[in-house]
Specification:
alpha/beta, 21 helices, binds iron/sulfur cluster
Length: 697
């Protein structure tokens, strides 16, 4: 990073990497002029992302310098939720937080303090470093960070251990590509050219998704399954493979355990029954089944969309078991891809160096419940970082009720004035990934990269490790000296890597995926289970699943709420990061047939509701939605709807069958029209409380 007395001060380009919650972890070339970011683009350091990055991160400078950026610590002035803060200095801010922590521990016990974090800037140093040492040693409640990927991680680990998936580059060797519950056009965009190359070369493309996504429009078959029914569809394919001689019996005998139990569970799932449950055409499902049975190499891109419901763990398990039963391994371009994060040359977590205490565990999906109902002890302090739970957690209204509590002390340590920060008692300004050192681990492309500051910290913002180690110091808690600053933390964490990998990391800034770079499953890489076999029926999960493994729990819907609401990722935000930059109201996407039945038209203002809450928003008719399914974007901030509620106001806080994940796609709703009119002003609203809209003109 050039300094003022550096000859490069005028203009320079700095190499770094994007650590945001996206599978690709692009290498970035950031242009800095006179100490200010003027352009964010791709770098050729990482050939897999060479040439382009997403438009979201191209705009990241608008977050860095935007009007919502937190520049100083602040203490609340005014009612909770008013977002009025008086500037204080770091000394005062951390003294106040430390004093509150000690008082709460003395009166209620340390478990009354709940640290709350998730992906945020997502680098390895931004969480589970100094923060983990501090909160573990203090004895705070622990957080089960299961809002995303918990079911898929649980089952993929149980079936395959940390076996690397088919790489993006090897998709072009597949003769059949199945995109299941994923939308690479918005997340993991660097897979798309490889899919296109394969299709141009004659590969068949199948997309299984309730929406006709951009790739679904180009697919040979789009199977628009109802949310929550993927497990039934996958089991019907298993049944066909077993019953029609397509199961690879030798592979199942030599390389797997539990195939007979899976076979038994699949028996009841005829194509007709699965099609009826999934509300798809049985002939279409049969074509998908036969295509998968007969084509090789065939690869399944298993996404995270299929896990976000009551059957999510079993759905992921049934999908990930398909290549084993169908004999799809052993060829380049055959097998599956999921998260690659477990397969990387990644540092382990020895740097934490403090054993996990046996304190209370709070599932983050139950935040509202924890704030409103837990009493043994009650949550008296919520310390939020890398996260925006006021908009991203299920059961939003209960979360907001909790944040409104006068007896709750809320600390929010973030880069911008998020919807959660507005409810804080103390706000602390955090650096972005363009202002600190970090390590980025790709869960899609399989590499590890150094993230380095390209500009000085904006305002008085500080990196996570520095703030948590300073706070620990005030509390008399020891944090490793190597975790007191981000450069030290980088050296410390990288120090847990094998020598060769560390040398390569500091030499080139990037370590590619494991060798070979594009492994063939069951040729170059094998399950990292105890005996290197696939565990198709993991007994340890059987105990956890409420209805058993490979089970289907029926739809929770009712006549009152006949529509399934989904909230998929958009091209505007990375979860809720960058949500502050949305300037237009969000639309409810609804199929024209469902709209006609409700006398709804594009631009009408509608009430989307169920027993948990309601969202007031504009309507957009969209023939690409499945009948019976409506959609609101993931990661919306409260200002993006007319009543300050987002999709999560309609999402129950129930958890998935395996892994304790969020059931975002189990929201069942009804929609009615409020106003037949074109809103003249569709710019976003500003919120001063959660019941009154204050339009900005
Ligand atoms: S969000 Fe994803 S696609 Fe965009 S720059 Fe970051 S890693 Fe690349």
């Amino acid at each position: 990073m050039p300094k003022r007395d550096d000859p490069a001060w005028g203009r320079s380009t700095v190499e770094t990497a994007c650590p945001l919650d996206c599978p690709d972890t692009c290498s970035l070339a950031v242009t800095v002029e006179k100490g200010r970011i003027t352009k964010i683009d791709s770098s050729d350091r990482n050939t897999a992302t060479d040439g382009y990055i997403c438009n979201k991160v191209r705009r990241f400078g608008e977050r860095v310098y935007g009007q919502d950026r937190l520049l100083h610590p602040g203490t609340r002035r005014g009612a909770k939720g008013d977002a009025r803060f008086q500037q204080i200095d770091w000394e005062q801010a951390l003294d106040t937080v430390a004093r509150q922590m000690l008082e709460i521990r003395d009166r209620f016990g340390a478990e009354a303090i709940l640290p709350f974090s998730y992906g945020g800037s997502n680098g390895l140093l931004s969480q589970d470093t100094a923060d983990a040492q501090l909160f573990r040693r203090f004895g705070a409640s622990r957080l089960a960070r299961t809002v995303c990927a918990a079911p898929t991680t649980t089952v993929s680990q149980a079936l395959y251990g940390r076996m690397p998936g088919v790489t993006y580059a090897d998709y072009r060797y597949a003769r059949l590509i199945v995109i299941w519950g994923a939308n690479p056009s918005t997340s993991g965009i660097h897979l798309v050219p490889h899919i296109r190359a394969a299709v141009e070369d004659g590969a068949a493309l199948v997309v299984i998704d309730p929406r006709r996504t951009a790739l679904a429009k180009q697919a040979d078959i789009h199977l628009p399954v109802k949310p929550g029914t993927d497990v039934a569809v996958a089991l019907s394919i298993h049944r066909f493979l077993f019953e029609h001689g397509y199961a690879d019996e030798r592979f199942l005998s030599d390389q797997t355990h539990g195939a007979d139990k899976l076979r038994e569970r699949a028996t009841e799932w005829t194509t007709d029954r699965a099609a009826a449950v999934a509300e798809v055409d049985a002939d279409l499902l049969e074509r998908v089944t036969e295509l998968y049975a007969e084509t090789s190499p065939a690869v399944i891109r298993c996404g995270w969309g299929l896990e976000r419901n009551r059957n999510g763990g079993n759905a992921a398990m049934a999908v990930l078991a398909l290549p084993a039963v169908g004999g799809k391994f052993g060829k380049r371009g055959g097998g599956f891809s999921m998260s690659s994060s477990g397969a990387l040359p990644s540092p382990d977590d020895r740097w934490i160096n403090v054993p996990e205490p046996s304190t209370r565990v709070v599932n983050m999906n139950h935040l509202g419940r924890a704030l409103v109902e837990y009493d043994d002890p009650p949550v008296k302090m919520l310390f939020v970082y890398n996260c925006n739970p006021a908009t991203t957690m299920p059961d939003q209204n209960r979360v907001l009720r909790g944040l409104r509590r006068d007896d709750l002390f809320t600390v929010v340590f973030d880069q911008v004035m998020t919807d959660t920060a507005r409810w804080a008692d103390i706000v602390l300004p955090a650096t972005t990934f363009l202002e600190h050192y970090d390590l980025a681990k790709s869960y899609g492309l399989g590499n590890l990269q150094i993230v380095q500051p390209v500009i000085d910290a904006v305002g008085e913002s500080l990196p996570n490790v520095e703030v948590f180690s300073t706070l620990a110091n005030r509390l008399g808690i020891e944090v490793s000296t190597m975790l007191h600053s981000d450069p030290e933390a980088l050296m410390h964490v990288a120090g847990t890597l094998p020598d060769a990998i560390r040398t390569e990391l500091f030499g080139s800034g990037i370590v590619p995926a494991a060798t070979p770079i594009s492994p063939i499953q069951f040729v170059d890489v094998f399950p990292e289970t105890a005996d290197r076999k696939v565990n198709l029926f993991p007994d340890e999960l059987q105990r956890e699943a409420p209805a058993g493994l490979y089970s289907y729990q029926p739809d929770p819907g009712s006549d009152l709420y006949p529509l399934a609401l989904i909230s998929p990722a958009s091209d505007k935000t990375i979860t809720s990061t960058l949500g502050e930059l949305r300037t237009r109201l969000a639309n409810l996407q609804i199929h024209p047939g469902d709209a006609e039945a409700r006398d709804l038209h594009t631009d009408d203002v509608a009430r989307v509701f169920n027993a948990n809450g309601e969202v007031h928003c504009t309507v957009m008719l969209n023939p690409n939605m499945k009948r019976g399914v409506v959609g609101l974007p993931k990661g919306l901030w409260r200002k993006s709807t007319l009543n300050g509620s987002t999709a999560n106001a309609l999402v129950p806080d129930s958890v998935t069958d395996l892994g304790g994940g969020a059931c975002f796609n189990d929201a069942r709703v009804e929609v009615t029209r409020i106003v037949t009119a074109h809103l003249e002003d569709q710019s976003v609203a500003i919120w001063t409380d959660d019941s009154t809209t204050k339009r900005v003109h």
